[in-house]
Amino acid sequence: MVSRRVSQGVRLLAHGSRSIAQGHYHDRLPVHGRDELASLAQDFNRMAEALERVEQSRVELIGSVAHELRTPLAGLQGYAEALADGVLPPEQAAGRISHEVRAMRRLVEDLSLVSRVEARAVEIRPQALDPAAALRRAAERFELVFAEQGVALRLEPCGPLPAVWGDPERLQQVLSNLLANALRHTPPGGEVGLKAEPAPSGVCFSVHDTGPGIPPEHQARVFERFYRVDSARSRQDGGSGVGLTIAKGLVEAMGGTMGLESEVGRGSTFWFTLPPARS
């Protein structure tokens, strides 16, 4: 009886392994009893579940990239046809084609960066940084953009703050992504606040907007690549869909953490911490 059970277990494992090798990641082994064979079957099923999640993520990524590229490609085709038919003058068509090419290049660069961030292969050159100076630099870069869209950008006063340990360019990239995200979701006449304050783990930076807010059921997924709370939003709104993913990955690469607080109708606050500078 024992020999038959072991033999049957081995056959099931062999069949399951062949099934997984053929790409049937949804297959599972039956689990009977609490002995070593049952434990082995449970481990096999956990492996199959992990592979199924990876495969699902891969399929979703391919679909998302195809969707993100479809809009600029359609634009390029339309402008090329308009140019060939004489509907658009060459100089006007060239300008619009150049705009779509830049958008595609930005998307490709973002995809390259997010892959390196998720693989923890992004280069970080940390040094002691002044948090207040970093906020001023970010605010100055976005001042005109916010003014053009009728959104107030408020840099809140900072009290005494300790220096933090981070990469100055990566920190600006994080702040830029958060500010761009806040601007995209804040209607004209709204306001975006930028501040830093002491925290037990160093310094906490935050970007608050007066946009529509994020429903609770979406908050756990906003840092996933290509995830959008409003599926109707697209790259036409100016985002590549990976900005928050990149920001969170860069913060973690610098030794910090990132999160959000949001309430529907009252806006959202994205925050992140950076550790104190090393002596």
Word description of this protein:
The chain is of the alpha+beta class. Helices cover 54% and strands 15% of the residues. The protein has helices spanning 2-21, 36-85, 90-118, 131-148, 168-185, 216-219, 243-253; strands spanning 127-129, 152-155, 164-166, 191-199, 202-209, 258-263, 267-274. The strands form 2 sheets. It has a 5-stranded mixed sheet. It has a two-stranded antiparallel sheet with strand order 1-3. It is globular, with a radius of gyration of 25 Å. It starts with a helix and ends in a 5-residue tail after the last strand. The model has no long low-confidence stretch (mean pLDDT 85).
Compact overview of the structure:
This protein is of the alpha+beta class and 279 residues long.
Global Rg:
25 Å
What is the 3D shape?
A: globular
Estimated helix fraction: 40-55%
User: Structural class, please?
Assistant: alpha+beta
Q: What's the total number of strands?
A: 7
Number of helices: 7
In round numbers, the mean pLDDT is: 85
Question: Kindly, what is the distance between the CA atoms of the first and last residues, rounded to a whole number of angstroms?
Answer: 68 Å
pLDDT < 50 runs, ≥5 residues = none
